[in-house]
């Protein structure tokens, strides 16, 4: 007999797009009736990835877009020394795989950070359905645009020289994404490791750990392993602005560090 957890996952994955709790974030938003049924029929696979399993690898041929239903993914590239550079973290309702739209091959690898369920949208079928359902086509473009905006925000974050500003922007962005999911944005459970965060922010892991500690000492956060409680969202927002982060650091009697 399969474990109870497996039975629960299978039951959840059998839900259609019409009853999915992510439909306001995902493609079905604003679509109803027969159109929604046609989209649901185009979803080829609703499956679970265990932690550490790859959804696709760099160089794989592009066939589908993927939507995270639960859990989280990271996307990364690997250099000639097998060093990972994390380029994105993906939460429920977010689409992955758009990196392959231009060339027809994935430029990065997507990997599950924890037990993650995904919906696979074969692109050929998706193109056919969207060509006949204008509302779905608009929604697809909106969702892709949202992913592009997140990439732009990451570039802005990487442009900040101060390590504490990068980390503050990362945490605030994650809190905002939690709020979009109707979760409590002040209580984060980080599925990614400190090494992943450091790679994503272009920092060394010791710097990330040091600034988590300094934020905690300043009363901004409470950190319990992967659980992070934002105690002072106002101060965290101030830390996202370089001009004010210096004064915030001085108040906490911590010099700026990279």
Automatic annotation (TrEMBL):
CDD domains tied to this protein: CAP_ED (cd00038), HTH_CRP (cd00092)
Organism encoding this protein: Dyella japonica
Main location: cytoplasm
Coiled coil: none
Domain of life according to the entry: Bacteria
Protein name: CRP-like protein Clp
Localization, UniProt: Cytoplasm
Keywords (A to Z) from UniProt: Activator, Allosteric enzyme, c-di-GMP, DNA-binding, Repressor, Transcription, Transcription regulation, Virulence
Domain HTH crp-type: 161-234
Oligomer status and interactors: Homodimer.
InterPro entries the record matches: cNMP-bd_dom, cNMP-bd_dom_sf, Env_Response_Regulators, HTH_CRP, RmlC-like_jellyroll, WH-like_DNA-bd_sf, WH_DNA-bd_sf
Domain Cyclic nucleotide-binding stretches: 27-101
Record-linked PANTHER family: CRP FAMILY TRANSCRIPTIONAL REGULATORY PROTEIN, FUMARATE AND NITRATE REDUCTION REGULATORY PROTEIN
């Amino acid at each position: 007999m399969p474990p109870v957890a497996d039975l629960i996952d299978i039951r959840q994955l059998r839900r259609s797009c019409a009853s999915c709790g992510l439909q306001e974030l995902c493609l079905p938003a604003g679509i109803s009736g027969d159109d929604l049924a046609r989209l649901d029929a185009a979803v080829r696979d609703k499956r679970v990835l265990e932690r550490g399993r790859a959804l696709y690898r760099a160089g794989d041929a592009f066939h589908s877009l993927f939507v995270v239903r639960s859990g989280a993914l990271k996307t990364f590239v690997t250099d000639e020394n097998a060093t990972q550079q994390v380029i994105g973290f993906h939460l429920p309702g977010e689409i992955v795989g758009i990196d392959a739209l231009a060339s027809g091959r994935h430029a990065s690898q997507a990997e599950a950070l924890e037990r993650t369920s995904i919906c696979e949208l074969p692109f050929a079928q998706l193109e056919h359905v969207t060509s006949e359902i204008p509302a779905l086509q608009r929604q697809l473009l909106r969702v892709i645009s949202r992913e592009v905006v997140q990439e732009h925000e990451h570039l802005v974050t990487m442009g900040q020289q101060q390590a504490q500003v990068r980390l503050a922007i990362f945490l605030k962005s994650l809190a905002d994404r939690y709020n979009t999911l109707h979760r409590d944005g002040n209580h984060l459970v980080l599925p990614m490791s400190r090494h992943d965060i450091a790679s994503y922010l272009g920092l060394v892991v010791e710097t990330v750990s040091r600034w988590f500690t300094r934020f905690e000492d300043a009363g901004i956060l409470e950190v319990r392993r992967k659980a992070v409680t934002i105690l002072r969202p106002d101060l965290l927002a101030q830390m996202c602005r370089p001009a004010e982060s210096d004064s915030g650091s001085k108040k906490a009697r911590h010099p700026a560090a990279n």
